[in-house]
Amino acid sequence: MSLGDQSRIPEILKKYETDLLQDWLSEQLSTGSRKNLSKETELREECREFLELLRKAVQGSNLTNIQAPEWRDVREMLSSISRARSLKGFTPTETATFVFSFKQPLFTRLRQELSQNPTALAEEIWIGTALLDQLGLWTTESYQKARDEVIMRQQEELLELSTPVVKLWDGILALPIIGTLDSGRTQVMMESLLQKIVETGSDIAIIDITGVPTVDTLTAQHLLKTVTAARLMGAECIISGIRPQIAQTIVYLGVDLADVTTKGTLADAFALALKRTGFTISRPQT
Amino acid sequence: MESIPILQMGEFLLVTIQVDMHDRLAMKLQDDLTNRISQTNARGVLIDISSLDIVDSFIGRILGNIAKMSRVLDAQTVVVGMQPAVAITLVELGLSLEGIRTALNVEKGMALLRASLETAPRGSANGYASG
Amino acid sequence: MDMLQAETMSIQSSADVVLVRQSVRQFAVKQGFSLVDQTKIVTAASELARNTLDYGGGGTVKLEALQDGIRQGLRLTFEDEGPGIPDIELALKDGYTTGSGLGMGLSGTKRLVNEFNIVSHVGKGTCVTITKWK
């Protein structure tokens, strides 16, 4: 049962605005550990803004569902704070404490106002706690999302560093791949290989998968599509370094490599590429 | 009426497609090209699509038609400059552009034409499969 | 799901097909699609616009920029009041052609997008909806 319509919380937020802000601020600053990470003025501004948005949101008498549209501004503000704190090095707890530390000041005021009515007080405290819990959890999720984004970005950068396209000779490129290939990574690599082919005007690209332990159907298909795309553009691909296990997987998966030139080693592939591009290697007589 | 310019470079013709072609323009190109091949006795046609950021089945058909018509007139066609994104999309779309040879750029395209003209003197049928 | 922007265009001539391609490109660029994804959606639009023109006797396309949570998408709806497709399953089969050599391009087009929906009734018309998510 919800006291949504008759909750005293909206009124209390308005009546005790300044006091609540002050108490809340002291509450956070008193835990002391991260004083140097969040300057007091900055924190005061964040608290003030949150209170203002909170007051607006509770006007709609929905104190139970923070996913509703009237809570959007509050959610966005909390997301933004969480994100900033995650990047600054706050722990998840320290970030969520921003919201949870508001309970004490709020409940103190509730107790003041409802000292004569214990039932109502109990219900209001329940509403308040449920609401702030939701908001606190929201900050934790936003924090997590921000962390995930950093990790993803780092993965991308690592990816770019780990699969360079190398020019072996005039008109011959090599892409030595190390590690497990997943569908996404393969797509990215293939697009950049094709781009490099155009940029360097290379006739042959050797894709070496000696360092790849396994491939799945999707990856094998991406490799095939890359070879086909390169051919469409006017270049050829040679796949080298296929391990026995991968050869078995490819056959078992029914992927048809009939049209693709493959070589056991990168060296063999390079020798073939040289021949195809019209080069011969000779050793001078001594 | 607008048309796509056809440049003569020795015994080859070079067509650079830069605009988004609508039907009439494509038809006119086919017409103009076949006429020019006859007039100049061209042995090869280079179609530069490096400015095309889209190749759909319509364009694919046009390129295929041009290749076929040229072959009948004893000229070979090479399509050059396909963008990577276009190539990837064509593979996904399932368009194989069979019977059309490709090269990375005009220079390589000409080298390809010259090489195949050496091995296939005038008057012989030149069949090949691509892709 | 929110709709951020929408536009309806008429497809009555091959010049219109060119305009459709340009508009779809603009939408895709604005939503930040990668170059390859842009190429795929614009190519798909070109195929379907041509079908609307060649087989449907002309029609319309509605372009919608969508936002579903954090992901962004582009939805295109092609409609015509043409003869309709008698056997949709057949038309969607790989390699199906209607004699012109490259067919209606439906199965290929389907592979270029994330969602593909087609409704067609003989004598009434056809409606194809495709969606690509970023």
Description of the molecule:
The complex is a heterotrimer of chains A (286), B (131) and C (134). Chain A has 286 residues and is an alpha/beta fold. Chain A has helices spanning 9-15, 17-30, 40-58, 72-88, 92-100, 103-113, 118-162, 183-200, 217-233, 244-252, 266-276, and strands spanning 166-169, 172-178, 204-211, 236-240, 261-263. In chain A, helix 3 packs antiparallel against helix 4 and helix 6 (103-113) packs antiparallel against helix 7. Chain B has 131 residues and is α/β, with parallel strands linked by helices. Chain B is built from four helices and five strands; from the N terminus they run ββαβαβαβα. Chain B has helices at 23-40, 57-72, 84-93, 106-119; strands at residues 6-9, 12-16, 44-48, 76-80, 101-103. Chain C contains four helices and five strands, in the order E-H-H-E-E-H-H-E-E. Chain C has helices spanning 14-30, 35-54, 88-91, 106-112; strands at 2-11, 59-68, 71-80, 115-121, 125-133. Chain B binds chain C through residues 20-24, 53-58, 60-61, 64, 83-86, 88-89, 92-95, and chain C through 13-15, 17-18, 21-22, 25, 35-36, 38-40, 42-43, 46-47, 50, 94-95, 100-103, 105, 107-109, 111-112.
How would you sum up the global shape of chain A? elongated
Q: What is the terminal-to-terminal distance of chain B? A: 37 Å
For the termini of chain A, the CA-CA separation is: 99 Å
Bin the helical content of chain B: 40-55%
Largest sheet of chain A: 5 strands, mixed
How many E-type strands of chain A?
5
Beta percentage of chain B is 15-25%
CATH fold-level assignment of the largest domain in chain A? Globin-like
Tell me about the largest β-sheet of chain B: 5 strands, mixed
CATH architecture of chain B: 2-Layer Sandwich
Number of domains of chain A: 2
Name of the top-level CATH class of chain B: Alpha Beta
Note poorly predicted spans of chain A. Answer: none
Main sheet of chain A: which strands, in order across? Answer: 1-2-3-4-5
Count of runs of 4 or more consecutive helical residues of chain A: 11
The number of helical elements of chain B comes to: 4
Q: Might you state the CATH topology name of chain B?
A: Transcription Regulator spoIIAA
- The overall pLDDT average of chain B reads 87
**Structural class of chain B, please?**
alpha/beta
What order do the SSEs of chain B take from the amino end to the carboxyl end, as H and E?
EEHEHEHEH
Rg of chain B, rounded, reads 14 Å
